[in-house]
Structure formats: structure tokens, C-alpha cells
Amino acid sequence: MTSLLKKLFEGASIARKCMLVFALGAFGALAMPPLGFWPILFAVFPMWWIALHSCVTTRQVFGVTWCFYSGYFTVGLYWIAAALFVDIANNWWVLPFALLGLPALMSFYPAAAVVLWHRMAWQGPPRVLLLVVLLALSEALRGICFTGFPWNLWGYAWMDMMSLMQSVAWWGIYGLTLLTLLTVFLPILWLQETSTRSARALVGVVLLILLVANVWGAGRLTVHYAPVDHQVRVRVVQPNIPQEAKWDAEQRLQHEQTLWQLTTKPTSHAPHVILWPETAITLVGTEDVRLFDQKIVTQLPEHALLAAGILDVGWNAAAAQPLFYNRISFYDAKASRLAFYDKAHLVPFGEYLPYQEYWPVRPVAFQAGRFSAGPGPQTLIMGDLPPVSPLICYEVLFPGGVADRAHRPAWLLNVTNDAWYGRTSGPYQHLAIARVRSIEEGLPLVRAANTGVSAVIDPLGRIVDMLPLGDQGVIDAALPPSLPPTFFARHGNATFYWMCGIVLGVAVMWQRRQRRRIPHV
């Protein structure tokens, strides 16, 4: 089979190779939620490896890698284009970028890493380890540069194996991505012609790490943590308002009425805090604020707090222009605003445009202007409510960036509006990412989404209760207790970089011992 694949790639033109590896990358996207078909990675990566080794020049190596990852990102991120059709008359100009431009840009990270790998011209098993480390580092770089977009990291392929996912409490999702890449390259380490007894021992070590991580994770999942005294009750409101109708002025009062009807729905256990999704309402003027305050006083249950996603407006006196905020505001039953949080990690082209004054168009999600960014992760303390770290929409993507390390919260709150993406894979991938943040931090997470998927998630990433995509209703649940800070919560992504250093150190020593190089062409 291996020889047949070699002949397939070695006899192909560079154009045909690129088409084949584009298809391989597209199949690799099937490993991501909601499908989670991770076994396909054990076919996709070895075949891509064979395609790489059929390349002669650096340009060919770059092209084969870029096409492989372009296929992966095109299929894995297709749902972004769905958001543009909500208002295609204004957003048509972004469609080529969403369908082709973003996958192309994301693919430059691994392509540059593989070019470096190719030019170093290592040989044998160290060559495999070097590629794994550089690919893992390129994934981390993708999560940092140009505001970062760490979506569909390879480690998310294991979401259906919650025992293995528990390992992110130690090394985070980047660490699991490194382990994933090591794992899918094991067949190459075992079967390549230069494989040695040491290489096969390394295969055994990686499999042992996987086994230990799985056993430890399975044991962790069997532990049932007793609820704390006077456990806090939460109500999550999911109004299921289609994005096409969300900002229709004629339907605005109806939408607000839906929110309040769900908020005041009878329950046997009175909620301590009620959660509305991202931009549930708009407060653009004094009259809007006054009417909203009146509704709170008359509708909000006594002793309850309301955490509402709000499109809020301020004023910049110096520039004589309005300031817009994507905000979560916390109110008590007397309509007093106890605290608020402004989204800090804004979406490029969605919520702001770089150098916007020079663009003839406006951000996709906000045609009125651009949002102002908040200061970043904050722990808010309000009365008897456990300290909370609010996160708006895709701020939950960033490992190590969802909580204030100096003031650890007791839970995470993620409000979002995934109505933009309809019934695509995007909302399910977003939910999976939020679950991993819970495991990493050892904190429960409550997710309020406009159209779904809303959920209450325990600190082990398990879904306690949820509302499916496209349903209208509420979740009434007890807030799960938090765990002591995990290793990742204490050290963040530093563990991942130490792991990369160890694997690279092994590769360097191994390469020196071999004392031979592959000549670079």
C-alpha cells in the first residue's frame, strides 16, 4: 500500500499533487466536531507525508503543505461564509475572503513551518519529530498572531473521548495538539525504511503516554464532586431569534417580550442569576434605558440578578462621536447596574476593520460603525454571586486567556450569538471549544446562546444540561462547583512550550548521534 501511494505521488505533476493533498486536508476536517471521526487522521497524515517526500524543491514543499491545510480550513471553516448571507447585499465583498482568503491565510503558518523543516534536511526519526514540533508551534502561532484564531486545533479531534480530553487540565489544548500530531505520525515512525529499535521504542513511549492519560482521565471522570452549600441556581434564556429578524425595528418589541416571557417562566427553584445571550437588546438612547429599567423593576424576580448581553452606546467628547460596546451588564431587581464587561477580543472584519477610516465598507456584524474594546479578562464580584469571568462570543477560543490569573473566578460565563451561522457545524465547534476551556481551568462554564447551543458545563467538560440548536426555552440548573486550580490554570501554555522543548531536544540528540544529513536540493 505504501509503495502504491509513493508511485501515485511521485508520478504526479505538482498541480495533481496539490489537488490530491487539498482533498486529503478536506477529509481531515471530518475529525473535528460535530463528526469527530478522528481515525481518519491516521490515513490523512501518512499520505500527506508521502506527498511531501515526493517533492524536490522548497517551492513544491510549500505548495503541497499550503494546499493540504487549505483543504482542511476550507471544509472546517465553511460555516463562516454562512454569516455573510444574513445581509449579503452589504457583505458580498467579504465572501471570497471567507471562503478562500481566510483558509489561504491560515495555511501560511504550517506551510512556513514545513519549509523550515525541509531546509533543515534532517534524516530518519528525528526528521519526523522535528516536523511534529514545528507543526504544533505553528498551531500556537495561529492562535496569537493578528489577534489570533485558534479554531479547530488538532487536539479538538478527541472531543468524543472525554477521558483523553481531561489531559488538557495538565498541558492545555496546544499540548494535546502536540500529542495528537505525535500519535498520527506513529505509523511513519514504525514503517519507514530508516526505522530503528529506538524509533519503535519511541512509538511505545507515545502509546504509553496516551494510555496513562486515558486511564487518569477515566478515573477523573468517575469522581463525583459534592455540591457546595447554598448552591447557586442559574437560568439560561435562549430566545431563538433568527439573525435576519434580530435587528428588524418592527419586531424589536416582540423580541424583548420573548426574552421577558422566558425570564419570568415559573420554576420550582427560584434562580439567583438569569443569563441572556450576546446583544440580546440594544440601548441606544435615554428612552431605551428608561424603558429597560422599568422592565427590570417589574419583571425581574426578587433577589435575582440579570446578566444581559447588550449593544450599548457611550460618547467620546473629545472626538465628538459615539462609542459602541459589545457588553454584558449585570443588574439587580432595582435596575441598578452592579457591574459590566466589555468585549476585549474583537473579531477582525466582523466587529471592526483595521484602519477603518480608509475602508468604503463597514464591519460585517455592525454596519453602524465599529466596537470599542474592553481591557481583557476580569473577575467580577457582585453580592452573593460567586466571582465570575465573563466572555463574549469567540473570546472563549483562547487557551490561557479566559480568566484573570491574579483573581481566580469561581465560574466562566460565555454569552454568544451563533444565529449568524445557522444550522452549520460552527455552533457545535464553538460549544466543544467552550467545554475544553472548562477542563483546562477546572471551572464550570455557563453558555447562553441566542439560537443555541446553550449549556451548563461542569469543570470536567461534561454537559449538565443544554438546549439544542434552534430551540427556544430556558435551562434551570444548579451552578456546578469549581475545582482547585489545575496545573494548566497555574502555568498556562508554558507547559506546551516545555513539551515542545523536550521533543525537540530528543530529536536534536538523536540527529547528532546519527551524524549524517540528507543533502538539500
Could you characterize the architecture of this molecule?
It is a single chain. With 521 residues, this protein is α/β, with parallel strands linked by helices. Strands 1, 2, 3, 4, 5, 6 and 13 form a seven-stranded mixed β-sheet that branches. 45% of the residues lie in helices and 15% in strands. It contains 18 helices and 13 strands. The chain is globular, with a radius of gyration of 25 Å.
Number of helices: 18
Helix content: 40-55%
Point out poorly predicted stretches.
Answer: none
**Strand percentage, roughly?**
5-15%
Q: Rg, please?
A: 25 Å
Task: Work out the number of β strands.
Answer: 13
What is the overall shape? Answer: globular
Task: Provide tags for this entry.
521 residues, globular, 6-stranded mixed sheet, alpha/beta, 7-stranded mixed sheet, single chain
